[in-house]
């Protein structure tokens, strides 16, 4: 059976005794967006992008758009996000210039109402007033666990002249906001340079601080451990906390430390995130949200 995992992911799988399940689930990883996912993609109003800055730091950012703003080519090897990249690229403040051709990028498309999600990795081929074009290298669906249900309305007009706040150490107010979050997204990097973006969620209070480190419990999902494997091989990480109702996102870059010795409370372990810098900015488009039920998988 073809093994789609690198050494970091394999180490996590073997440590937890789920190697066979990981290999079975790994068969969903494809070199292009599957035909059966094209319709799902065309209905999405939210995408999360992850990329590395020129200084090596990883960042993740949330982008909203009307249904149909994200479309793939029929063969699944091309992806286009219809937007004005200069005004709407969710990484433009964090990367100090935004996405540009030849930059590796990871994406997550998530439908909070159905709890479906699709992960895509590739390389930027264009970024201009017509949109962001990506050459797809891999794509695969993820399980629906730990996603709080929500319904997103059609986003409003593009926010013009958005100004970002930034800093190194998080303020107490920002730390409190993070600790209260039920959802965030994380960008991590593979040994070969490919980017992954994944979702993390739980009941309010599932995140907490131990001194300067954010403690993130890792719950059982599809047992692929792409994110944990990446963090084990390379500790760089980019987190984004989006307040869709307020139309703002908090992006944080830093490094993660994996701890698989503390499997408790329904977790398989945890990781500690050490923040190094942050950026807060408006979302590219405001979007109204109707919240729904928490995930039935939450511990």
Query: Helices and strands: which structural class?
Result: mainly beta
Mean pLDDT across the residues is: 96
**H/E series:** HHHEEEEHEEEEEHEEEEHEEEE
**Name of the level-1 CATH class:** Mainly Beta
What does this structure look like?
By secondary structure, this protein is mainly β. The protein has one domain (7-291): Pnp Oxidase, Chain A (Roll), CATH 2.30.110. The protein is 14% helix and 40% strand. The protein is built from 6 helices and 17 strands. It has helices at 7-16, 19-25, 38-42, 85-88, 172-179, 226-233, and strands at 46-52, 58-64, 70-72, 78-81, 104-111, 116-128, 131-142, 150-152, 165-167, 183-189, 195-201, 208-210, 213-218, 236-243, 248-259, 269-282, 289-291. The strands form 3 sheets. Strands 9, 10, 11, 12, 13, 14, 15 and 16 form an 8-stranded antiparallel beta sheet that branches. β3 and β4 (78-81) form a beta hairpin. The two termini are 34 Å apart. The model has no long low-confidence stretch (mean pLDDT 96).
Any key phrases for this structure?
299 residues; mainly beta; Pnp Oxidase, Chain A; eight-stranded antiparallel β-sheet; 14% helix; 40% strand; globular
Briefly characterize the structure.
The chain is mostly beta strands and 299 residues long. 14% of the residues lie in helices and 40% in strands.
Please outline the helices and strands.
Elements: H1 7-16, H2 19-25, H3 38-42, E1 46-52, E2 58-64, E3 70-72, E4 78-81, H4 85-88, E5 104-111, E6 116-128, E7 131-142, E8 150-152, E9 165-167, H5 172-179, E10 183-189, E11 195-201, E12 208-210, E13 213-218, H6 226-233, E14 236-243, E15 248-259, E16 269-282, E17 289-291
Antiparallel strand pairs: 1-2, 1-5, 3-4, 4-7, 5-6, 6-7, 8-17, 9-16, 10-11, 10-14, 12-13, 13-16, 14-15, 15-16
Helix pairs in contact: 1-6
């Amino acid at each position: 059976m073809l093994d789609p995992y690198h050494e970091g992911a394999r180490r996590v799988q073997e440590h937890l005794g789920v190697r066979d399940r990981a290999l079975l689930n790994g068969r969903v990883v494809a070199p292009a967006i599957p035909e059966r996912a094209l319709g799902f993609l065309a209905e999405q109003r939210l995408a999360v992008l992850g990329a590395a800055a020129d200084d090596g730091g990883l960042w993740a950012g949330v982008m909203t758009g009307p249904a149909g703003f994200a479309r793939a080519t029929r063969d699944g090897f091309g992806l286009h996000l219809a937007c004005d990249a200069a005004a709407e690229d969710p990484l433009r403040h964090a990367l100090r210039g935004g996405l540009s051709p030849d930059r590796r990028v990871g994406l997550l498309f998530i439908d909070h109402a159905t709890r479906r999600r699709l992960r895509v990795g590739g390389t930027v081929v264009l970024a201009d007033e017509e949109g962001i074009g990506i050459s797809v290298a891999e794509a695969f669906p993820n399980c629906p666990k730990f996603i709080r249900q929500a319904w997103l309305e059609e986003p409003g007009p593009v926010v013009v002249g958005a100004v970002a706040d930034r800093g190194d150490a998080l303020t107490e107010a920002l730390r409190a906001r993070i600790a209260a979050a039920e959802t965030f997204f994380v960008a991590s990097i593979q040994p070969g340079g490919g980017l992954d973006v994944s979702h993390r969620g739980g009941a309010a209070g599932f995140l907490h601080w131990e001194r300067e480190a954010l403690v993130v419990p890792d719950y059982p999902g599809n047992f692929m451990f792409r994110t944990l494997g990446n963090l084990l091989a390379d500790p760089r990480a980019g987190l984004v906390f989006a307040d869709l109702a307020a139309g703002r996102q908090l992006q944080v870059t830093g490094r993660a430390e994996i701890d698989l010795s503390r499997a408790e409370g329904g977790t398989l372990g945890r990781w500690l995130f050490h923040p190094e810098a942050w950026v807060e900015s408006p979302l590219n488009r405001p979007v109204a949200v109707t919240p729904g039920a928490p995930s039935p998988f939450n511990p």
